[in-house]
């Protein structure tokens, strides 16, 4: 049901004002439009309007400068901010300024109408403000693609919470950068950020690394040692490659998350803990659960807010921004200023980037250091990418023939799966587990291919739209408008 209200719109673009006026009026809202911030402020200060929709850049004032005044005068008034400056910092500033929601331009009209209806339906309550001058100057994330816009908006919503976040994505997509952004722009920014990579620690030392140990707890423990939980007290603990955590350590971690306390290895006194947990993995934890290698109850404790980082090949339109960013970093380190030719960018956008953003960064540093030209030509890019393919075995490799059918691939997978159990059988329920494992990537790939359009994805899959929505909820698919 649509909740009717009075909507105040401020945008310098006459076409956008017209579209919004017509769309909102058609569903019964009372709409007023203006092209400047002064008129909008006059309406707001007079007590008019139930909701504000405003562009960031106005002819007479930036919306971010006006938002604190609006929130002070009318803390219950929801403000939806739009911007064509689609960066991570834009989303963060919108959240920190007290905006109800941030929408990058061009926006989806249906999504905007849903946001308006949700804002008008919610009980009015003041939203927390924060001094913008406290923000770090650096921009940790780069990219303006639709896929990254959804990541920015999700992060902005998470900044003022302590909810546990599970970041998934291929190696090199920037999972630790996202975890650091959640910390540095969040409410725990004055506390420590402590990272631990589960894959880099011997299995028999993980519990000691996490929880610390007492003197004499085991051979070689000559002194008491603090663990990462104690080091991260009051801040954020980043558990990278969580899928590599051994089962016994998973059990102890689950107990900490449930009870909010832990004991050191060899200790007896429980220690209260106050940390925010951000976990990351490049593995499919659902598959590990089905194989009995990861605890399902721990997965649900960690997966409160799932966040999937898209591989670089799904957001190739971000490559020019990333290249300029890495070249600028190189300049600050004494390397010469460089640029890529248009044909070179075309080659880079077609390359699959198996190493993702990390691979791109390494390539840019190599180009800046080894080539004297101011402009790097396509021939050099092609030569470098061909060399990397030869070293890595040709980019993304599955080790399977290219003409393999889905049925043949599943058969090979099942042969390997059964072989892992030797003479034993896998746990019961294999039929449903296998269907679930196929269903998740199928729905995710369809949503990515249709840029998050559920109508098109439902048609592609041959499903009813309501059925698709149910599948998205049940499978935990992180929907975003991925670039192609």
How would you characterize this protein structure?
It is found in: Cytoplasm. This is DNA-binding transcriptional regulator NtrC. Keywords: Activator, ATP-binding, Cytoplasm, DNA-binding, Nitrogen fixation, Nucleotide-binding, Phosphoprotein, Repressor, Transcription, Transcription regulation, Two-component regulatory system. GO terms for molecular function: ATP binding; phosphorelay response regulator activity; sequence-specific DNA binding. The protein is α/β, with parallel strands linked by helices and 484 residues long. Strands 2-1-3-4-5 form a 5-stranded parallel β-sheet, sandwiched between helices. It has a 5-stranded parallel β-sheet with strand order 7-8-11-6-12. It is globular, with a radius of gyration of 25 Å. It folds into 4 domains: 129 residues, Response regulator (Rossmann fold), CATH 3.40.50; 151 residues, Rossmann fold; 80 residues, Helicase, Ruva Protein, domain 3; 48 residues, Arc Repressor Mutant, subunit A, CATH 1.10.10.60. It is built from 20 helices and 14 strands.
What is this entry, summarized?
This protein has 484 residues and is an alpha/beta fold. The chain has 20 helices and 14 strands.
């Amino acid at each position: 049901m649509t909740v009717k209200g009075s909507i105040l719109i401020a945008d310098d673009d006459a076409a956008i004002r017209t579209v919004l006026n017509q769309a909102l009026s058609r569903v019964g809202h009372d709409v007023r439009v203006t092209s400047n911030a002064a008129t909008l402020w006059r309406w707001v200060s007079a007590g008019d309007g139930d909701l504000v929709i405003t562009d960031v850049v106005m002819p007479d004032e930036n919306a971010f400068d006006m938002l604190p005044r609006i929130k002070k005068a009318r803390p219950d008034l929801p403000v939806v901010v739009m911007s064509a400056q689609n960066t991570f910092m834009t989303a963060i500033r919108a959240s920190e300024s007290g905006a109800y929601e941030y929408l990058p331009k061009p926006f989806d009209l249906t999504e905007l109408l849903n946001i308006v209806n949700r804002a008008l339906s919610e009980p009015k309550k003041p939203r927390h403000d924060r001094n913008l001058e406290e923000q770090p100057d650096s921009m940790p994330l780069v990219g303006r693609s639709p896929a990254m816009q959804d990541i920015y908006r999700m992060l902005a919503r998470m900044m003022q919470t302590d909810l546990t976040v599970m970041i998934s994505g291929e190696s090199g997509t920037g999972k630790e950068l996202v975890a650091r952004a959640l910390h540095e722009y969040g409410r725990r920014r004055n506390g420590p950020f402590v990272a631990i990579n589960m894959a880099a620690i011997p299995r028999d030392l993980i519990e000691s690394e996490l929880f610390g140990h007492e003197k004499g707890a085991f051979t070689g423990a000559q002194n008491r040692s603090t663990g990462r939980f104690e080091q991260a007290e009051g801040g954020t603990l980043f558990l990278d490659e969580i899928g590599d955590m051994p089962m016994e350590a998973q059990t102890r971690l689950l107990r900490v998350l449930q009870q909010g306390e832990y004991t050191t290895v060899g200790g007896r006194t429980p220690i209260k803990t106050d940390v925010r947990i951000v976990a990351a993995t490049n593995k499919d934890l659902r598959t590990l659960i089905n194989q009995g290698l990861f605890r399902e109850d721990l997965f649900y404790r960690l997966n409160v807010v799932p966040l999937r980082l898209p591989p670089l090949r799904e957001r190739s339109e971000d490559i020019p921004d990333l290249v300029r960013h890495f070249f600028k970093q190189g300049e600050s380190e004494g390397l010469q200023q460089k640029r890529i030719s248009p044909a070179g960018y075309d080659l880079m956008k077609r390359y699959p980037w198996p190493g993702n953003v990390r691979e791109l960064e390494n390539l840019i540093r190599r180009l800046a250091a080894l080539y004297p030209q101011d402009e790097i030509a396509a021939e050099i890019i092609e030569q470098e990418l061909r060399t990397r393919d030869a070293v890595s075995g040709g980019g993304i490799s599955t080790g399977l023939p290219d003409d393999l059918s889905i049925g043949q691939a599943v058969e090979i997978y099942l042969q390997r799966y059964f072989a892992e159990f030797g003479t034993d059988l896998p746990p019961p329920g294999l039929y449903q587990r296998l269907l679930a494992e196929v269903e998740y990537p199928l729905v995710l790939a369809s949503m990515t291919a249709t840029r998050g359009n559920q109508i098109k994805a439902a048609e592609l899959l041959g499903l009813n739209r309501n059925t698709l929505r149910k599948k998205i909820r049940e499978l935990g698919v992180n929907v975003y408008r991925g670039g192609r």
